[in-house]
Amino acid sequence: MITELFLEGRLRQALSEAEKQVLEDAVGRCVILPAREVLIRKGELAERSTYLVEGYMLRYIDGIDGDRQIVCVHVPGDFVDLHGFAMKRLDHDVCALGEAKIAYVPHKALSDIMRNEPHLARILWFSTLLDAAMHREWIFRLGRLSAKERLAHFICELHTRMAFVGLVENNILRVPLTQQDLADICGISPIHINRVAAELREAEIATLARPMLHIHDLQALKDMCQFDGSYLYGEGRLHVDSELRLK
Amino acid sequence: MITELFLEGRLRQALSEAEKQVLEDAVGRCVILPAREVLIRKGELAERSTYLVEGYMLRYIDGIDGDRQIVCVHVPGDFVDLHGFAMKRLDHDVCALGEAKIAYVPHKALSDIMRNEPHLARILWFSTLLDAAMHREWIFRLGRLSAKERLAHFICELHTRMAFVGLVENNILRVPLTQQDLADICGISPIHINRVAAELREAEIATLARPMLHIHDLQALKDMCQFDGSYLYGEGRLHVDSELRLK
DNA sequence: CGGAGCCTTGATGTCAGTCAATTTATGTGG
DNA sequence: CCACATAAATTGACTGACATCAAGGCTCCG
Fold first, then answer.
1. Does any strand D atom come closer than 7 Å to the Cβ of A191?
2. From the CA atom positions of chain B, what is the Rg in Å?
3. Sorting pLDDT into bands at 50, 70 and 90, what band is B19?
4. Choosing a second label site near B7 at 20 to 30 A (CA), which of A34, A35, B108, B189?
């Protein structure tokens, strides 16, 4: 199943087998997107959404002076632009980080789900709100944390999300983000990213050696940036709303 | 109609009269919330959502050292915690700014809408994604703008949103945010907010004189922070998806 | 009239940006 | 397999925007 990673570790277990099949059928066949390829540009009308199977994708807003702010990083199992279904046009660009394997979902299929599968629809809604929850935490990160804390916080988030979909082994992840990318995520200069990354390395907390990320001391990493992963809704299984299926 | 401001200036005109009535019926009677009263705390299970009729409400994340980051400001016509319907518990606190008039919507009523009114459901989904779009712009603001630009950018956003719901007259708005609040929004210290606010005043661009905000030169304000309000989807009327109503 | 909360202003310190140069990977074609 | 070109990472020196500390002045309300 292509969609087996969707909300894995989160609400996926709230889906019935029939719903999983509906979702799987809604997704087309896989396509490979070359590294750094732009999938959608701000303002374009969208008639399909994109499900990420392998690799990373980035959402970003470009400023007028060429300064870029990455607003979301997507990992396998994420819908990259499901919000495009309800919004019709995006307010930002989306691109692949490295090479990415994706599958498209026609909005027609999503309309059918809205009409016939209210419970599944609510789960899809939830998944877009998970992005919003991450956005909020990013706002906190940028507004209230120091440069070193921001980087640590981002690494914690990435680790948690990748662990959900089984892509962390021995606290090692494949993360092909450049220091420039990390700068665009953390809202600091690439030179300073280099310095704080060096500090983390020297403190034997985490080592960024593209394309691999080694986390040596996860607890220390979390402690230094007051990371509380509850916004990722990892224990969502406790809060499944079955009401929509009862009737 | 209590809900007449909902998505006013945005997708409201996409709703049929029948749908407007369904929405209106879903909303209970109005309640007054005292200034600074906390409506919901992080982690609480939600069984209803809140529609804001009058006043302002704030969503914020508190750090460990008492440092607060406001992640969203709500104006009349907004659902404050509609995402609580799909998420069941919130990842942040919500409070009133000044006195606020609100109305509750039981999640039971929202479930009914999900089941019976797919088009209206999609519009509700859209409204939560509008919050996400604002979150993204806030990320850009915090990550890439200077202190003065951040304040200008926030003022532009507030102006645009308040104008949608008819609460701006002669470029004057009622905004009872303190400088501390503005600091918690812009991710800078209250002292520095005072300084950049003074700069805007002296440049005759905008004057913050709580509880009123006067914008003297809107164009200059927008120019100085590269404000592009398209993320607020003000011309959403162009992109209405009627497919869900056709069948 | 007194106090609390908010706003204002000045002095000083620091975190992170910018500029500039070097080293290390990555990749391409001969 | 090596030479070269390009992108990425690293390091140091200098600068500046904003934080912090500290003190004083409003303004509203009981």
1. yes
2. 18
3. very high
4. B108
Q: What is the DSSP string of A77-136?
A: T-BSSTHHHHHSB-SSEEEESSSEEEEEEEHHHHHHHHHH-HHHHHHHHHHHHHHHHHHH
Which CATH homologous superfamily contains domain B2-136? Jelly Rolls (2.60.120.10)
pLDDT, tens only, A204-235:
999 999 999 999 999 999 999 999 999 999 87
CATH 2.60.120.10 positions along chain A are: 2-134
Q: Chain A, 206-225: which have a CB under 8 Å from a chain B CB? A: none
Cα gap B232→B41, rounded to integer Å: 27
**What percentage of residues in chain B have a pLDDT greater than 70?**
95
The answer for residues whose C-beta is within 8 angstroms of residue A62's C-beta and 6 or more apart is: A68, A69, A93
Q: What is the nearest CA distance from B203 to chain A, expressed in angstroms?
A: 23
Q: Which CATH number does A141-231 carry? A: 1.10.10.10
* Residue A121 to residue B108, Cβ atoms within 8 A: no
Give, in words, the CATH class of B141-230.
mainly alpha
Tens digits of per-residue pLDDT, A94-121?
A: 999 999 999 999 999 999 999 999 999 9
Does the CB of A194 sit below 7 A from strand D? yes
Q: CA B31, B233, A76 angle in degrees (round to 5)? A: 100
pLDDT per position as a tens digit, A21-80:
999 999 999 999 999 999 999 999 999 999 999 999 999 999 988 899 999 999 999 999
Do the chains contact at A92 and B136, CB–CB below 8 Å? yes
CATH number of A2-134, picked from 1.10.10.10, 2.60.120.650, 1.10.630.10, 2.60.120.10: 2.60.120.10
How many angstroms separate the CA of residue B31 from the nearest CA in chain A?
27
Contact A239 B131 (CB under 8 A): no
Amino acid, single-letter form, for residue B73: V
The confidence band for B224, taking pLDDT boundaries of 50, 70 and 90, is very high
Which of B73, B125, B235 to probe by mutation at the A interface, max A CB count within 10 Å?
B125
Protein-contacted bases of chain D (C-beta within 7 A): 8-13, 17-22
